[in-house]
TrEMBL record:
Its cofactor is Zn(2+). It holds the Pfam family DUF1365. PROSITE patterns: ADH_ZINC. The chain crosses the membrane at residues 23-47. Keywords: Membrane, Metal-binding, Oxidoreductase, Transmembrane, Transmembrane helix, Zinc. GO terms for molecular function: alcohol dehydrogenase (NAD+) activity; zinc ion binding. Gene3D superfamilies: Medium-chain alcohol dehydrogenases, catalytic domain, NAD(P)-binding Rossmann-like Domain. Belongs to the zinc-containing alcohol dehydrogenase family. GO terms for cellular component: cytoplasm. InterPro entries: ADH-like_N, ADH_Zn_CS, DUF1365, GroES-like_sf, NAD(P)-bd_dom_sf. This is Alcohol dehydrogenase-like N-terminal domain-containing protein.
Length: 723
C-alpha cells in the first residue's frame, strides 16, 4: 500500500529517538499504534476498491472524479476514527484541504451511515471574521522538524480567521430519524492550530437544517485536552492514548442502538424511518458476490442493444459505484455517420447494486427496468430509485428494438440448463435467454453460479438446498417463491513457480510466485519467452510465451493437460462486453493486461497461471521459438491489418523493421498486399526485400510517388521522408 512507508518511518522515528529497553517498550507500543493507524487509513478510502493507494493518491483520485484540480489543494489533513479489534464505526471523516498559501480552503466530509452506505461531499469554506485571531502565536506558524537531521518537516497552516463556514445539500440517509432533504451547515476551526483547541470551543460543528430553515439536529466535536505530539510523547502516555482512542469505538454501535430505542419508545420524541434507496452520487453498500458476477451481463445487454440500434445513439452506462467507478460509453454503428443534431444521448445509472440480482428474476427485462426505475416513494426519501434513466422512452425503444432481433431459446424437455434456471426461480427469465444465447459459453457458469449448475459432461456432483427466502426488498416487483439453490462442488490448488523480475538498476532478480489455480485458469510450464521493454520495472518480465499445460482449473474444457499453448499480454477477458461479444476480445473493456495488473506473473519464468480464455494451442510442426513472437508483436500487427480492413492488392506502407515491422512486412506480403517499406537510409534494404517488401524507398519524390492505402508505423518515431 502507498502509505506503508510513511507508517514504518513514523514507527522507527518513535523508537530510535530513545534507546535500550525504553526503545523496545516504545517500539512495541508504537507498533500497536501503527497497526491501528494502518487500519484507519485503509478505511479512509473516498472511493470503493482503492485501498492499494496512499492517502494522497486517494484524495487526488476523488478530486478528479469531482472535476476538481488536485493542484488547487496541495496540503491536506485527515481526521477520522480508527478500527479496533476488527470493529469499526466511523460516522464521518473530515479531510481538511489547504490552498497553496497554506490556508484552510475546503473540506471533504466522508459520511457513513449504519447501512454500509456513504457519501463524499466536498464544499468550499469561507473565513468568518473574528477578532480573537490574535490568540494564535506567531511561533506556531514556524516549520517544525521532526528529526535531528531535519529531513522530515511539519508544515503549519496560515489561517486568516478563527472560524470557517460552509454549506451543502443533504443527499444521504445519515440518521434513521432524519429525512433526505434540506441542507447541512458547518463551522470549523483550523485543526492545526494548537492554541485554538479548548474544551469550550468546537473543532467542528455540523447542523442539519430543514427546507423551512429550521435546525433539526446539531453535532459538535470538541477537544477536552491539548493535542499531543506522538514524536515526543512518553511510552505510558502513548499507550494510554491508544486505549482511550480505540476501545470506546467498540461501544459506539451499542450506544447508538440504545439511544435510538430510547428516543423511539421511551421518550417518543423521534421516530425511526425505513432505509430508502441511496441518491445518485452516493456510494452504495458493498455488493454481494452474486451482484458482482451479474453486473458484466447487464453491461453486455446494454452493449448489444446499442450495437443493434439503427439510429445514431450514444449511451453512457454508470455502474453501481460500489462495483466500479468508471463510466462506460457505447455508440451505435450509425453514430459514426451522424449529422449535427441527429445523435440521441441516453444515460443509465444503477444506483443500488441489488438491481443486478433482481433484474435476472423478472420474466421480461423491460418489466424489471420499468419497475426498478420508478421512485419508491418512501417517507425518508420520496425521490430515490434503484435505476436512474435520463430518457425512459428512448430506453424503451432501444430495448424493444433489440428484443425483436433476439431469438428465444427453444423450450426443451429434460435436465437442461435453461429448465434448471426456470425451476429455481419459478418462471422463465428473459435475461436467461439473452445470456445463454448471446454470450460466450465459458461465461455461463459465472452467470448460473447464483443457483449453481449441472455440468453433465464432467459428471460433477451437486447438492440441493431448499430456501424460503427472497433477495429483493421490493416484494411487489418479484414473486416471493421458494428457491432451490444448487451448489456445485469445487476445489482449488496452490501452485508455486520460479519467476524473474526486473529492477530499477536493470538487474534481473529471481523470485517465487504462489497462486491459487482458479476454476477457469490453467497452470503452464513455460518453455519459451520473449522480453519486451520492462527490465527496469519490478514486475515479472515477459508477455509473449509458449509452454505446456500441466494443470487445469475445474471449469476448463477447451484445452487439456499436455497441450502446447501460446499466451501474450492479455491475461484475462470478461467475455461479456460489446467487444468480446463480436469477437474483438483483445479490446475487452475489462481486460487484465500485462504491465497494468497481476505483476507477479509473466512469461519470463518457469511457470505461470493464465486464464484459459487467453491461451491458444500451437499447431504441430510449428516451432515454439517462432510462435512466441507472434503472441505479442504478431498479434499487434495482425490486429491493425484486420481491424482497418486491409485487403489483398492494397498498397501498404510500413516504417520500422524491428520486432513489429519485420512481422508486419511478412503478414502483409502473405495477404497479397503490395508492401512498400519506407526508411531514412538504405541500410535495411536487403532485409526488408527478403521479408517480402516489393519496394524500398529511402526518399520520396512527391511527383512520382504512388499513394498508399494504409500506413503502419512500427518504429519509435516518424522520420523525415519528405511527406
Amino acid at each position: 500500500m502507498g502509505f506503508i512507508k510513511e507508517i514504518v518511518y513514523c514507527v522507527t522515528l518513535l523508537g530510535v529517538q530513545s534507546g535500550g529497553l525504553r526503545f523496545w517498550a516504545k517500539a512495541i507500543v508504537a507498533f500497536l499504534g501503527s497497526v491501528l493507524l494502518i487500519a484507519t487509513l485503509a478505511l479512509a478510502g473516498l472511493l470503493r476498491e482503492d485501498n492499494e493507494y496512499g492517502l494522497r493518491d486517494k484524495l487526488d483520485r476523488f478530486l478528479r472524479s469531482q472535476n476538481k484540480d488536485p493542484a488547487r489543494w496541495p496540503y491536506a489533513y485527515l481526521m477520522s476514527v480508527p478500527r479496533f479489534l476488527w470493529w469499526e464505526r466511523s460516522v464521518v471523516s473530515f479531510w481538511y484541504l489547504y490552498s497553496p498559501s497554506q490556508e484552510l480552503d475546503a473540506v471533504i466530509m466522508e459520511i457513513n451511515n449504519s447501512f454500509d452506505e456513504k457519501r463524499n461531499v466536498i464544499f468550499q469554506l469561507k473565513p468568518e471574521s473574528d477578532k480573537t485571531l490574535a490568540e494564535i502565536d506567531d511561533s506556531e506558524r514556524e516549520p517544525i522538524y521532526l528529526d535531528k537531521k531535519k529531513s522530515v518537516m511539519s508544515l503549519p497552516s496560515m489561517s486568516s480567521a478563527r472560524f470557517y463556514k460552509g454549506v451543502f445539500e443533504k443527499r444521504i440517509f445519515a440518521s434513521p430519524f432524519e429525512r433526505v432533504e434540506g441542507s447541512i451547515s458547518t463551522r470549523f476551526i483550523d485543526p492545526l492550530h494548537i492554541s485554538l483547541h479548548k474544551p469550550t470551543v468546537s473543532i467542528a460543528k455540523v447542523a442539519s437544517t430543514g427546507l423551512a430553515g429550521e435546525s433539526r439536529m446539531v453535532t459538535s466535536i470538541s477537544c477536552k485536552e491539548p493535542p499531543i505530539d506522538p514524536v515526543n510523547v512518553t511510552t505510558a502516555h502513548l499507550a494510554k492514548r491508544i486505549f482511550l482512542w480505540t476501545f470506546p469505538s467498540t461501544l459506539t454501535t451499542p450506544r447508538i442502538i440504545y439511544q435510538a430505542l430510547k428516543f423511539q419508545y421511551v421518550q417518543g420524541v423521534m421516530h425511526m424511518m425505513d432505509r430508502p434507496t441511496i441518491q445518485p452520487g452516493s456510494v452504495a453498500r458493498h455488493p454481494t458476490s452474486i451482484e458482482r458476477r451479474i453486473e458484466p451481463f447487464w453491461r453486455a445487454f446494454l452493449s448489444r442493444c446499442v450495437e443493434s440500434f439503427p439510429e445514431p445513439l450514444e449511451l453512457t452506462y454508470i455502474p453501481s459505484t460500489s462495483i466500479s467507478n468508471d463510466h462506460v460509453y457505447f455508440k451505435s454503428p450509425a453514430s459514426g455517420m451522424r449529422l449535427p443534431g441527429t445523435v440521441k444521448y441516453l444515460t443509465v445509472e444503477v444506483v443500488d447494486p441489488g438491481f443486478y440480482a433482481r433484474i435476472i428474476n423478472y420474466p421480461h427485462i423491460w418489466e424489471g427496468i420499468s419497475c426498478e426505475q420508478e421512485q419508491k416513494r418512501s417517507y425518508a426519501d420520496d425521490t430515490s430509485s434503484p435505476l436512474v434513466v435520463s430518457d425512459i422512452q428512448l430506453l424503451h425503444t432501444l430495448v424493444f428494438s433489440f428484443q425483436k432481433k433476439m431469438a428465444p431459446i427453444p423450450v426443451e424437455s429434460g435436465l437442461t440448463l435453461t429448465n434448471i434456471l426456470a425451476w429455481c426461480r419459478g418462471s422463465r427469465s428473459q435475461m436467461d435467454s439473452f445470456v445463454l444465447s448471446s454470450t460466450a459459453p465459458f461465461l455461463h457458469p459465472r452467470y448460473t453460479d447464483e443457483y449453481g449448475y449441472f455440468n453433465l459432461g464432467n459428471y460433477r456432483t451437486s447438492i440441493s438446498l431448499l430456501l424460503n427466502h427472497s433477495i429483493s426488498p421490493y416484494r411487489s416487483c418479484i414473486p416471493y417463491i421458494p428457491r432451490v439453490l444448487l451448489y456445485n462442488q469445487r476445489y482449488t490448488m496452490d501452485v508455486s513457480f520460479e519467476v524473474y523480475r526486473g529492477s530499477p538498476s536493470g538487474q534481473i532478480i529471481s523470485d517465487t510466485t504462489t497462486r491459487i489455480l482458479g476454476p477457469n485458469e490453467v497452470y503452464i510450464e513455460i518453455t519459451h519467452s520473449g522480453i519486451c521493454g520492462f527490465l527496469k520495472s519490478t514486475q515479472v518480465l515477459g508477455h509473449e510465451g509458449v509452454g505446456i499445460i500441466r494443470r487445469l482449473g475445474s471449469n476448463v474444457t477447451k484445452v487439456k493437460v499436455g497441450d502446447r499453448v501460446g499466451f501474450g499480454y492479455v491475461r484475462k477477458v470478461c467475455g461479456a462486453c460489446d467487444n468480446c461479444g463480436i469477437g474483438w476480445d483483445q479490446y475487452c473493456r475489462s481486460a487484465r493486461n500485462y504491465g497494468v495488473c497481476d505483476f507477479d506473473v509473466g512469461t519470463f519464468s518457469h511457470g505461470t497461471v493464465w486464464d484459459a480464455s487467453c491461451v491458444f494451442p500451437i499447431p504441430d510442426g510449428y516451432l515454439s521459438e517462432d510462435a512466441a513472437p507472434l503472441i505479442c508483436a504478431g498479434a499487434m500487427v495482425w490486429n491493425c491489418l484486420s481491424h482497418f480492413g486491409v485487403w489483398s492488392t492494397n498498397r501498404v506502407g510500413i516504417m520500422g523493421v524491428g520486432g513489429l515491422g519485420h512481422l508486419a512486412i511478412k503478414l502483409a506480403a502473405e495477404m497479397g498486399c503490395q508492401v512498400v517499406f519506407l526508411s531514412r537510409s538504405s541500410d535495411k534494404k536487403e532485409d526488408t526485400l527478403q521479408y517480402g517488401a516489393e519496394e524500398f524507398l529511402d526518399h520520396i519524390d512527391r511527383f512520382s510517388f504512388r499513394p498508399l492505402k494504409h500506413l503502419l508505423l512500427c518504429g519509435s518515431h516518424l522520420g523525415d521522408l519528405g511527406l
